[in-house]
Design the sequence.
């Protein structure tokens, strides 16, 4: 074809790419009034939209499917060229939002501090938006015995925390 480009070079019009902010806003509207909350919502440059949601107790596959369908309905054709992945944060993944701390009160967690120290213990409480109370766990002095927990919790400000994760234990 003289004077023109071959058909495979002709750019086709594409649906506008959704942004991470648009994705997060659609999720917040969809989840308002439910026990489900957004952990993360991002649209990557590769065109993949990754959504992590959780529930104050546990999240089911049915809820994840409902959220996926709701997003597809909300964005319609704008999601045609986007790979949408809706899931829950895996066990042992770092906490990203304050509500995850509330969900895990009473559970064994690992806290990495900004000074490099790593503490393990039971998450006793969340102090509003300022920090947590952790009953630190210490290794047993005698091999084979259970670790000991401090009687009094240690207050740790969020500013001193770089990473918090739930610890998986097998009893």
Sequence:
């Amino acid at each position: 074809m003289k004077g023109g480009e071959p058909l495979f070079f002709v750019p086709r019009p594409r649906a506008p790419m959704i942004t991470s902010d648009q994705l997060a806003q659609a999720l917040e509207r969809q989840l308002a009034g439910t026990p489900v909350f957004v952990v993360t919502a991002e649209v990557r440059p590769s065109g993949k939209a990754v959504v992590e949601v959780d529930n104050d107790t546990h999240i089911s596959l049915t809820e994840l499917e409902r959220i996926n369908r709701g997003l597809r309905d909300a964005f319609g054709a704008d999601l045609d060229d986007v790979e949408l992945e809706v899931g829950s944060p895996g066990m042992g993944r770092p906490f990203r939002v304050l509500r995850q701390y509330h969900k895990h009160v009473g559970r064994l967690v690992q806290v990495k501090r900004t000074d490099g120290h790593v503490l393990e213990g039971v998450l006793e409480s969340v102090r509003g938006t300022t920090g947590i109370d952790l009953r630190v766990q210490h290794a047993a002095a005698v091999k084979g015995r259970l670790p000991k927990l401090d009687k009094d919790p240690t207050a740790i400000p969020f500013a001193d925390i770089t990473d918090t994760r739930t610890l998986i234990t097998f009893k």
The chain has a mean pLDDT of 88. Strands lie at 36-43, 48-55, 83-87, 108-113, 118-127, 131-138, 148-149, 154-157, 161-166. The radius of gyration is 22 Å.
